[in-house]
Structure formats: structure tokens, C-alpha cells
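Hmm, how's this folded?
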Amino acid sequence: MPILLAIMAPMLWGSTYAAAALFFKGYPPIWLAVWRALPAGLILLLLRPSSLRRLPLPWPRMLALTLSGVTVFFALLFLAAYRLPGAVAGTLGATLPLQMLLLRWLQTGQRPAPVWLGLAVLGLLGVMLLLNPSSHLDLLGVVAALAATLLFAQSTLWMERWPVQDVLPLVGWQLLLGGVLLLPVAWQWAGPMPLPTLQQAPGLLWLVIGNTVLANAIWFWGVRRLSGQMMGMLSLSNPVVAVSLGILLVGEHLNGWQMMGISLILLSFILMKLVPAGAARQQSKPLDTLTLKSC
């Protein structure tokens, strides 16, 4: 049951690209990131009013989580969503497990367990097929998607290691502060904020409630309950949703090589279920000694 609930987060995130393509064509991506973060943060904090009295983490850690998991992450995410097909942008997130393994190794010296490394590489091979030269992909969009995934991998590892008693206020403060920090960046980058139209309201409502409030709360609950590495592998469900919605709703098409790449990603996700529970716990064992010096 925990895995079934946890997998809902990346599946909900997989709808980001279709929502942006359907409802927000021409809308500045940086302002869309602001609209996604600020209301979601306020909603989560109002669900637990007592959390407004103090931050759940010290300021340095709170700022690190906010920048990596919201402010810069959202800006890059929506930049990728506007410059890449949804199937491609979503599948680039399949590098999350491998990026988490490499970050853990670089920062703590904890070598990747062979089984997790093999599954992550299999997913990466799928991504490489998806990015074959005949796809004519936008380079800036690819870089933005990979950089966003790297930042999210780092914030997930921090969430896994740092002691937090209540995840809900942490996610709320992270989104609220991240949205506030995005405001001057958005103004400088894209000028005054254009108000969403009535036609865009359904898309905005989905991005705030389902795509951010619900998905972020489930994700960080899963990180604390299951482990960061397990959640990283579950994130491979993201491109499945992105591909499906891109084909069904946006009219996107994939060539044979890209379909083969997506098949490899799905295969790595299926094989993940065969990994012994002990291997998963050993790979994601928290390290209490890790501090912000590893940022």
C-alpha cells in the first residue's frame, strides 16, 4: 500500500507538460512557476495553521531546500516544458535514480549497490534512445530538464537525511518561500505578471492542487517512509504518464527508437519491484553526519 500511494506523486507530476501545452501556450514559464508554488504553499500551511509560527528547519537548510526544490527547479522545469515535447521532457526525469546514486556517492562516499546502479543505467539507456539525433531536440530544453532533475535529486537526498518531525509544514514553507523568491526573478525575466484567463483556470487549478499540493506532500512522505532511492526509481512512472498524455491530449508522436527507449525505462521500473527490501534500505541508509558543507 505505501508504494501504491507513493507512486502517485511522479504520476501526478507527469501531467505537468500536458497541462502547460494545453492551457498555457505563450504564457511566460517563470510566471507559471510562481503561480504553481505560491498558492500551493499557502494551502499546505493553512492546513496546519500552527506551522506558521516557525520554520521546520534552520534557515540555511530551509533556503537550500527551497532553492533546489522549488525556485530554480520550477523555473527550469517550465522552461523545459515549453521547449520540448512532453514525452521527452518527462522521460528526461528518468535520470533521477542515476543522479541520486552519483550525488550520494560524491557527497558521502557510499558506493552504489550494483542492483540499483544496474537499474538506473538501464533507465538511462532508455533516455539515450529517446534522445537520438533524429528527434531534433532543443538543446536548451534538454539541459534545463536535466539540471532540474539534478536539483530535485539533491533536495530529495537532503529531505531523506535531515530530521523533520512533520513533512507537511516543511513542504508548505518550501513552496511559499520558493514562490516569493521567484517573484523578482520572474519580473526581471518576463516583465509584469500576466493574469491567467478564465480559460486557463482549470489548468491552473490542476497545477496547484493535484500537481503540487498533493504530489509534493506524497513525494516527501514517501521519501521519509520508503527511502529516497526507492522514490527515485518510482519516478520512472513520470514519463509513462507524460508520454500517454502527450499522445492522447496534445497530439504528439514518437518514432520507433523513442518507443524502444521508453520500453527500457518501463523495464527498469518493473525489475525494481524484484529488488530485495534489504538492498533498498542499505542503499538509502541515512547519514546523520551530513551537513550543508556538502552543498
Observations:
- The two ends are 34 Å apart (CA to CA).
- Residues 167 and 221 are 7 Å apart (CA to CA).
